[in-house]
Amino acid sequence: MITIKDKTFVPFIPADAIQARIQELAEQINQEYADKLPLIVVVLNGAFLFAADLAKHITIPCEITFIRVASYSATESSGQLKQILGLNESIAGRDLIVVEDIVDTGLTIHEVCQQLQAMHPTSIAIATLLFKPSALKEKLDLHYVGFEIENRFVLGYGLDYDGLGRNTKEIFVLHEE
Ligand code: XMP
Ligand code: MG
Can you give the residue ranges of the Phosphoribosyltransferase domain (predicted)? Predict the structure, then answer.
């Protein structure tokens, strides 16, 4: 059990299960990208541990780069838009694997992929550690999914509550009384 500010979280996915699943995903990537020299695009901050552990099991040649997604309001009526920060390399003609911590509504990854698509990569695949199918609002093709989970707030192994709690080996879920 772990308490952060006013919230209590209970164990949800143990560290060894996370590591075993990541190894399986990496082996799949090793097979499917054997002749492709992929560019792995890690979405910070949440995916930093997942990406690091995934990369340790990727044995084919690949490049790794890091982006952030900033939310901003362009106008009051159009709501939150997302902007990709930190992408310095040209992605035209590359095979991208976008690495995310979690796909919840899917709005973030959908918009990231649309913006990347406009830069003419050869292909885009999504690798997400966690996926909440019942929260999804966008039609998305998720190529590599670690765990499908129910629609509850999770924390740890990169995922935060108010900036805290990213630094754990296991994943916790919000304890609801
Ligand atoms: P969506 O898919 O809804 O997700 O655009 C946007 C971002 O929200 C964060 N997120 C979470 N963070 N526990 C967290 O710690 C959660 O259960 C959770 N659900 C969504 C995450 O940063 C994701 O990229
Ligand atoms: Mg995130």
Answer: 17-161
